[in-house]
Amino acid sequence: MKLELIEFPNTNNIFLPGLLYEPEKGSDKVLIYLHGNGSSGGFYSVEVQNIFGKTLIDNRISYFTFTNTGGHLIQKFDKITDGENERVVAGVAYELIKDCISDIDGAVNFVKSRGYKHIYFIGASTGANKICVYDFYKEKNIVEKYILESGGDDSGLYYSAVGDKKFMSALQMCEKQIKDGKGRNLVPKYLYSTPISYQSLYDQINPDGDYNIFPFYWQLNGVQIMKKTPWREIVKITRPILVIYGDQDEYCYEKVLDCVNLMKNAVTGKKNYKFEVVKDANHAFFGKRKELVEKVLKFLLE
Asked: What Å distances lie between residue 246 and 96, 105, 149, 157, 286, CA to CA?
């Protein structure tokens, strides 16, 4: 096994760190891993990355994981333009989900430069949302297959945690701060317990925004709050796609099968979709990661 720590630019010239697992005899296939939200990055957890890396390279598929500009709560990255270096403050506290397009394009450009011809994506948690956002805005991309692992419903989760009154108040407050040019200011802790800007909180909880890919809460509870068409991004995907959840996913309102069935109903008649639910697995597939990787590998080899 060859393991290489690398750095590559996204399409905004912000340099991101990555880890590339490759078979000794080489490969023209690579799976790119998109990490989730919060304090996540491309190098956590060691168990996840090593299980993916070893299993895939044993089957002549390379594995590339990287930290995107939404990695960590607040993080500084180098932006190099015409030889000039600028330190850019980023991280989940400032990220807008559509920013992922620049990061993902940078990763795709990097693996193409290394000679890879067959490119696949797996997105965990918010990473699954990002795959859908990327596909929606860049339908003619060259990625061949997608895996959506534990896609999240951040808008509904926030609503269920704070209630209707506080939810609407938070949306209005964020809208006002953004309009007043203060979108990058951090929100007060009574709105959100960890550091996040007004623009990023609004992006996460806006039921009509790009982030709201999996509208589980709204449909499970019949809350008529969305104006955009539910599952808009999901139904548009035409590539082979595996959707996988643990049946104990703690972010599915204790109704994992109901959530999965909502998505199944949304894509009725579309033959490119495959669904898997792993027994006794939580959101992060703790204790079930080998089974997760085996299902991913089977899908990639089909």
From this structure: 27, 29, 9, 17, 10
CA dihedral 29, 301, 136, 238 (to 10 degrees): 130
Q: Give all strands (DSSP E) within the chain, no chain letters.
A: 2-9, 15-22, 29-34, 62-66, 75-81, 84-90, 118-124, 145-149, 241-246, 273-278
The model scores a pTM over 0.85? yes
Residue 108's contacts (CB-CB under 8 Å, 6 or more residues apart) are 32, 119, 141, 142, 143
Q: Are 264 and 22 in contact (CB under 8 A)?
A: no
3-state secondary structure of 235: helix
Ordered structural domains, the chain, with CATH? 2-153+214-220+230-301 (3.40.50.1820)
User: Which residue type, as a one-letter code, is found at position 167?
Assistant: F
Q: How far apart are CA 47 and CA 286, in angstroms?
A: 10
Measured between alpha carbons, how far is 216 from 210 in angstroms, rounded to an integer?
15
- pLDDT tens sequence across 153-195: 999 999 999 999 999 999 999 999 999 999 999 999 999 999 9
Helix and strand element counts for the chain (H, E): 10, 10
How far apart are alpha carbons 54 and 259 in whole angstroms?
32
Low-confidence ranges of the chain (pLDDT < 70): 38-40
Is there a contact between 178 and 202 (Cβ–Cβ < 8 Å)? yes
